Amino acid sequence: MSSFDTEMSFAGDEEFAKLLVRQDDVDLEIAALELARDASPSLDFAATRTWFDQRAAELAAPIARASDEQDLLEALAGCLSGTHGLTGSAEAFGSAAGSFLPDVIATGHGIPISLSLVYIAVAKRLRIPLEGVASPLHFLCRLDAPSGPLFLDAFSSGRVMELDECLDWLSDLSGLARQRLLPTLGPTRPRQIIQRMLNNLKAIYIDQDNWKPALPVQQRLTLLEPASYAQRRDLALVTLKAGHPDRALGMLQSCAKTAPSDDLVVLEKLIDQARVALAAWN
Predict the structure, then answer these.
(1) 123 and 34 share a domain?
(2) Within this chain, do residues 144 and 101 fall inside the same structural domain, yes or no?
(3) pTM of the model
């Protein structure tokens, strides 16, 4: 077992384990809850799943009355955003809680991807094939209709857009041409969705110098991309910053063997820091 494998199995996380072997039959809500459990080890998944069940029960009659896919999405948004107040919040982007489904439900606020997963979880119970879309800068939901795909923005209180409107809006938001955006609007696989959630959490924790909760996030990213030098380098750095110089030293030395010249000076300094920290333990 290499230094990069140490304490990185997440053996109890069954859905995350499926992602590691690139299975597609992943329960996305459970996979997202597994990430939330890193921050709250005693997290009870049942409470969140029961909330989803309750919202689906509330929606059963409105969904039965819906005449088309547009009506389905508007009913979904009416319940989740209108009745239960789920919507986007600028503050959620700077807080890890904005990525965790139990916190999103409790506060009513989240970021596009976490809010979208709430919509997808409830829609799944109603047999509505709502899918996630990892569009640039802003995660969306997609539902295919006979007239073409519809897109739901969970962050904006469940706004529904047709393809042309969505392309125009994303082009204004991202500065990218419609032709470049179109290929990004297909359904996104669970593996990529979880990676996007992890990258969001990583950015938040590092920006806050909050290294201990950053460690399991970076461990997961490294397991998902074991051949990535950048992920292994970041794991070594986060492990050191999180207070584990003993584990970090071997990781840093391994990275230094294949590091590009731009990284080597920084890695050598980090190796020295790890050695100094270890000496202080003795």
Answers:
(1) yes
(2) yes
(3) 0.94
Report the b/e string of 25-52 with b at 16+ CB within 10 A. Answer: ebebbbbbbbbbbbbeeebeeeebbebb
Q: 259, 233 in Cβ contact below 8 A?
A: yes
Residues present in the chain in total: 282
Give me the domain span that covers residue 147. Answer: 25-185
What burial class does residue 22 get, using C-beta atoms within 10 Å of its C-beta: 0-12 exposed, 13-18 middle, 19+ buried?
Answer: exposed
| pLDDT tens, the chain, 282 aa long | 344 544 566 888 999 999 999 998 999 999 999 999 999 999 999 999 999 999 999 999 999 999 999 999 999 999 999 999 999 999 999 999 999 999 999 999 999 999 999 999 999 999 999 999 999 999 999 999 999 999 999 999 999 999 999 999 999 999 999 999 999 999 999 999 999 999 999 999 999 999 999 999 999 999 999 999 999 999 999 999 999 999 999 999 999 999 999 999 999 999 999 999 999 887
Total structural domains within the chain: 2
